Amino acid sequence: MANKAKKQTARGRKQDRARVAGGQHFEVRYEAKKSGKSAASVKKAVKKVGTGRKRAERRLGAATTKKRAR
User: Fold this and answer.
1) What is the pLDDT of residues 8-65, one digit of tens each?
2) Cβ neighbour number for residue 65 with a 10 Å cutoff
3) Which backbone phi and psi does 19 adopt, to 5 degrees?
4) 3-state SS string over 15-66?
5) pTM of this structure
6) Rounded CA gap, 55 and 35, in Å?
7) Quick one: how far is CA 38 from the chain centroid?
């Protein structure tokens, strides 16, 4: 008898996408390109606010808005 394969959920992928791994260069590069910031500023934002992608993006976006508003 063949065993039924378990249906894989997207939970792991969703949890992974919700975070920015500051130590993984490809994630830092992606976030830097997406926000138009340097990789160093992305790492700094992740260190400051934590690994949550929304908070890191908000932090990077806030830096952009402060520079533009005069």
Assistant:
1) 777 888 888 889 998 999 999 999 999 999 999 999 999 999 999 999 999 998 755 5
2) 8
3) -125, 155
4) HHHCECCCCCHHHHHHHHHHHCCCHHHHHHHHHHHCCEHHHHHHHHHHHHHH
5) 0.69
6) 13
7) 14
